[in-house]
Specification:
about 270 residues; alpha+beta; Alpha-Beta Plaits; 2 domains; eight-stranded mixed sheet; 8 helices; globular
């Protein structure tokens, strides 16, 4: 009788342990599913945030924790600013239907953005139909000046191809103006408590915008500053432009039009 009771007790204990183990496994599976879901949500959030801020900034916020009144500390950095804008956008917007205009503008944004990304640049903001980008503001980049001009030349090539597509659809071509300058500025997460964005601010951004406007005056599509010219690889072909007075600068600004690169010209001739 005692043996029977012992066997029965052992059976009951085994059953209890089996049930406990089963529930433990279920909890483990549930926890694993929750962790996988959380990881997916975090990845999805990072990708979504990357559309609003550079990837390096998003990763820093995730690693350090997002504080309501803080963010990555603003730093003084030596960076290159590029400003690109559409030429004649107002006239185009008056002639085209909104749906057609939006499609053309989005195509322009996409091609310009790709050129910036491919040459290690980061989009700072969209200003109307203009785009502010910077090179070397997030991570050190000793080739930032060359990268910025390479990006500008890539935009030129991409917009030419885009215009061929638009022509096949019977749509008007677009034109761009690009200004580039290099110098010290302040980089970091800036703004109000309600809305912030990662930005690079300072003289280079202001001058890049002025140079972009000067492209209309000089009849060219890419202008770089004297400060940027001194840092460029000598293979870039530049043409000096007459010094011009620009708003916000006491002295007339000397600029250089970018024709291309000598290596590209030799390849084309060959």
């Amino acid at each position: 009788m005692t043996l029977t009771l012992a066997v029965g007790a052992a059976f009951v204990l085994a059953a209890v342990l089996a049930v406990a183990l089963y529930h433990q496994c279920q909890r483990g599976r549930n926890l694993q599913r929750q962790l996988q879901a959380a990881a997916w949500d975090l990845e999805h959030l990072q990708k979504a945030c990357a559309r609003l801020a550079p990837a390096g900034v998003v990763q820093s916020l995730v690693a350090d924790g997002i504080q309501p009144d803080a963010g990555p500390a603003a730093e003084r950095k030596l960076a290159t600013a590029l400003f690109v804008d559409l030429v004649g956008f107002t006239t185009m917007s008056e002639r085209l239907e909104p749906e057609t205009l939006l499609r053309i503008i989005n195509g322009y944004y996409q091609r310009v953005s790709e050129a910036i990304d491919e040459h290690r640049g980061h989009i700072g903001s969209f200003v109307g139909d203009g785009i502010v980008a910077y090179f070397g503001a997030i991570q050190p980049n000793p080739w930032q000046c060359d990268d910025a001009v390479h990006a500008a030349l890539a935009m030129r090539t991409s917009i030419r191809a885009y215009n061929a597509e638009l022509a096949r659809e019977g749509l008007p071509p677009i034109a761009i103006g690009i200004g580039i300058d290099r110098g010290p500025g302040l980089a970091g997460l800036m703004g109000s408590r309600e809305r912030r964005e990662y930005a690079f601010i300072g003289r280079p951004v202001n001058l890049a915008a002025r140079l972009q406007a000067l492209t209309r005056v000089h009849g060219v599509d890419i202008l770089v500053s004297e400060a940027l010219r001194t840092e460029l690889d000598p293979s870039f072909i530049l043409a000096p432009m007459p010094a011009a007075a620009v708003k916000g600068f006491a002295e007339p600004v000397v600029s250089y039009a970018v024709d291309g690169r000598s290596a590209d010209r030799k390849t084309t001739a060959g």
